[in-house]
Amino acid sequence: MSQSILDTMPGATTGTVSITDSLNFWDGKRVKPREEKNAEPVFEPATGRVLCQLFPCGSEEVDEAIKSAHAAYQKWSKLAGMERARVMLEAARIIRERRDKIAKLEVINNGKSITEAQVDIDIAWQCIEYYAGLAGTLAGQHIQLPGGAFAYTRREPLGVCAGIGAWNYPFQIAAWKSAPALACGNAMVFKPSPMTPVTAVILAEIYKEAGVPDGLFCVVQGGAETGSLLCHHPMVAKVSFTGSVPTGKKVMEMSAKGVKQVTLELGGKSPLLIFKDSELENAVKGALMANFLTQGQVCCNGTRVYVQREIMPQFLEEVVKRTKAIPLGDPLLNDTRMGALISKPQLDKVLRYVDQAKKEGAKVLCGGDPFVPSDPKLKGGYFMSPCVLDNCRDDMTCVKEEIFGPVMSVLPFDTEEEVIKRANDTTFGLASGVFTRDIARAHRVAENLEAGTCFINNYNISPVEVPFGGYKNSGFGRENGQVTIEYYSQLKTVVVEMGDVDSLF
Ligand SMILES: NC(=O)C1=CN([C@@H]2O[C@H](COP(=O)(O)OP(=O)(O)OC[C@H]3O[C@@H](n4cnc5c(N)ncnc54)[C@H](O)[C@@H]3O)[C@@H](O)[C@H]2O)C=CC1
């Protein structure tokens, strides 16, 4: 039981945890893999040790999970919103109570710093609490028609929804997808990234403990194959996906075959515009928040930092000073602010981007190297020093492609008109940001940037009340906020005749 792994967390340190519990969950319990074949090792990023083995679910297991979700859906969808809310609030309470233990387990599997993981878990329970609050408000409309006839609409769930997650926010993504789904009366089968399989099943156990019907939130483990089984399954009504653009396109294609609804939360290469009238210290802090959370592996990061030419020297001096001072190392230590990247291949990929940037003429002002902490147990970890690149141009690879690592590209600009054009010259459109003291400019820039979010005088804050999602290739549909109810429900119109049928025939 998860209790046991969570209960070992208070004393756990980096490099000491192994997980042998099975990581699938349906019918209200952990389920052993049917066959222990095609095992994939799951690593602890801070040490490079094997944390556990992942056994991908095949078609029979996926089918079993979906059927168990469907049975739960039939019970759950008949409850009043207020009844669902009560169970969800209990789940939120349990998460809040175990927050530090869950955060620790998340760090061991993901490599991010404990301070950040604690925030992630807080955002997860807040999201469940928020949608619990909305569950009781779901309602339709009443429309009067001629002759006393009338119509009304019912907001109904979709059925079994599939959630497919990325590895950068494992527990939080599972909460962001399941909370609105469950609030609307749906069930969910969730597939975490095969690199971070460990905490979604803790969420499943907590929902169960809070009182959801068995099967309401299931976890199937696996990679692309298991994910495509979910997308193709005829009993899945909707797929909500977080991940890369190429995979998102495949998910949409597969879902189209069954006319399933999709929400796609994909990658980005977001611009951050810093005008010369900005409060410089805040702008610098904003640029760090826009680039270095979760070792830079954040989809909405503002990795193209456009700085107005007049303030470039002061900005660079301050940003480099603060970047060099980021405490890097054992992610379970409270003082650490940057941990390890998710995997060796991801680390190598990010380092290659830095090399490529140098070849194309960028100047490394700091970082961009592999980092070996002095603690011997961290020698095999996937660490690199956070990097600031100067002398960047819009046509460079590091400015055009999503790096998904701690690499900030800084570019000079002269005018507002010019920088908006350059900022929008991308196929992505997830987020954007602007620092300025000029209130009219701030709103004008926000209006003109082609992105799903624009942060004014801050960056990367994501309160659960606020919708989150992309423009252009960064996807569509939204997570968080009231609007997400629309993406997990459908409207039924009921038309009521009060007189005789006026037939044309
Ligand atoms: N917009 C957003 O909210 C976020 C976007 N991302 C994006 O995700 C990427 C990094 O995450 P990864 O896990 O490497 O992305 P990925 O696209 O490789 O995988 C995402 C998920 O899809 C699954 N998957 C892979 N192939 C599949 C297929 N053919 N059918 C169904 N499922 C499949 C994976 O197993 C994983 O669970 C980055 O590009 C990043 O920008 C990451 C986090 C948040």
From TrEMBL:
Question: Active site: which residues?
Answer: 265
Matches recorded under Pfam families: Aldedh (PF00171)
User: SUPFAM superfamilies recorded for this chain?
Assistant: ALDH-like
The main location class comes to cytoplasm
Q: Which reaction does it catalyse?
A: 4-(trimethylamino)butanal + NAD(+) + H2O = 4-(trimethylamino)butanoate + NADH + 2 H(+); an aldehyde + NAD(+) + H2O = a carboxylate + NADH + 2 H(+)
Q: Which residues cross the membrane?
A: none
One GO cellular component term noted in the UniProt record for this chain: cytosol
> Where does the record place it?
Cytoplasm, Cytosol
Q: In which pathway does it act?
A: Amine and polyamine biosynthesis; carnitine biosynthesis
Q: Which InterPro entries match?
A: Ald_DH/histidinol_DH, Ald_DH_C, Ald_DH_CS_CYS, Ald_DH_CS_GLU, Ald_DH_N, Aldehyde_DH_dom
- What does it do? Converts gamma-trimethylaminobutyraldehyde into gamma-butyrobetaine with high efficiency (in vitro). Can catalyze the irreversible oxidation of a broad range of aldehydes to the corresponding acids in an NAD-dependent reaction, but with low efficiency.
Query: Which protein family is it in?
Result: Belongs to the aldehyde dehydrogenase family.
Name the UniProt record assigns to this protein: -trimethylaminobutyraldehyde dehydrogenase A
Q: Where does this protein come from, organism-wise?
A: Xyrichtys novacula (Pearly razorfish)
Q: What is the lineage of its organism?
A: Eukaryota, Metazoa, Chordata, Craniata, Vertebrata
